[in-house]
Amino acid sequence: IYDLPSKCSVLLAKDFVHNTFTVILNEETSNSRSLYVEMNQTVISIYPRLKISKMYNFSFMEENCQLLDQSLERNTTNSRRAANKIEVSNQKGVSVVCDFRYDLCTVTLAGWHHGISAGLLGTNDNEAGNEWILPNHSFTENVQEFTQSWQVNKCSLRQKKVKLCPVTAKEKLCKVFFEDSHSPLK
């Protein structure tokens, strides 16, 4: 169990070799958390306490901020939603399941992700001695140094100014990517 600094988003797990998945825990401004899951050019933002999820497909995005196709039928990412649960998985053996009743999410990796992923959840190689590896490949025994090293933002409460797309529908998409507190592009 880690005590994370407030208002900081952290990288939980990422495939650093094949880039097949990224999972980020985002701190929202209202003391709630969201989970950012990226697989196969698809991003799923899950808000366990709000019991909602949003899905975006990057493969249909154009430079002019055209709205993204939210269907997954032409994609290799599978998403299942039940009343109190959402499951997102891909053909590469990555699965993220959130149970909204318990505000609990799990990340499961297949064997071929053995030793090629890293983040706050460790290295997934069954070696207890290297679980606290830092992004620079050094090791630490300090919890604060470990959790801070995997932060993906500067933990600032101040909003950055961004250039918005000129059309209303396009403005909405740009806000999702650049202004929402859960966006890693903020």
From TrEMBL:
<feature type="domain" description="VWFD">
    <location>
        <begin position="1"/>
        <end position="166"/>
    </location>
</feature>
<protein>
    <submittedName>
        <fullName>APLP protein</fullName>
    </submittedName>
</protein>
<dbReference type="InterPro" id="IPR001846">
    <property type="entry name" value="VWF_type-D"/>
</dbReference>
<dbReference type="Pfam" id="PF00094">
    <property type="entry name" value="VWD"/>
</dbReference>
